[in-house]
Amino acid sequence: MVTAAQALARAASELVGAPFRLRGRDPQTGLDCIGLVASALARAGRTPPTLPHYAMRNASCARFLELLPQVGLVPSRADPAPGDVVLLRPSAAQYHLAIIGPSGLLVHAHAGLGRVVESPAPLPWPVQARWNLIEN
After folding, report:
1. Residue 78 near residue 132, CB atoms below 8 Å
2. Between the CA atoms of 118, 123, 125 and 128, what dihedral angle is there, to the nearest 10 degrees?
3. Pick from 129, 111, 115, 133: nearest CA to 43
4. For the chain, which residues make up each domain, given as ranges?
5. Long-range Cβ contacts of 51-56 (<8 Å, 24+ apart)
6. How far does CA 27 lie from the centroid of its chain?
């Protein structure tokens, strides 16, 4: 039996190669990091909530963090594992989401490369929080 976390990890890895687009929600036309998580959740059988508007640089992500429990994402205190959603902080005014893929690589929407990629962990940015997907 495939767990919810395994399904999310697999769904994220299937999105590798999708184009990058700010506020993108469709893998065909482009995804940003939030769109990547929303698309992977949908592919894993969860219904992502409606997302509020946001800018590329954002000093706070509190509005988004409040949405995570709605899809079954809960704070993780265990060792990092495939299917975990990771919140990174590339700069003081920017957050970035990634999902740990099945092989342990971080799947994320890379603006500079213009697509969703897999990168070896850890990325050079501080980890602010991590969540795992609980079973329905």
Report:
1. yes
2. 80
3. 133
4. 4-133
5. 53/23, 54/23, 56/22, 56/94
6. 14
Which tokens go with 36?
Answer: 């990547």
Q: In what order do the strands lie in the sheet with 106-110?
A: 73-75, 127-133, 85-91, 94-100, 106-110, 115-119
pLDDT tens readout for residues 95-125: 899 999 999 999 999 999 999 999 998 788 8
Per-residue pLDDT tens digits for 9-42: 999 999 999 999 998 999 999 999 999 999 999 9
**Which residue, 34, 31, 28, is CA-closest to 50?**
34
* DSSP H or E segment with residue 116: strand 115-119
CATH assignment of 4-133, among 3.40.640.10, 3.30.300.20, 1.10.287.1260, 3.90.1720.10: 3.90.1720.10
Contacts of 135 (CB under 8 A, 6+ apart): 3, 4, 72
Say which residue the tokens 């409606």 belong to: 50
Task: Label the pairing between strands 85-91 and 73-75.
Answer: unpaired
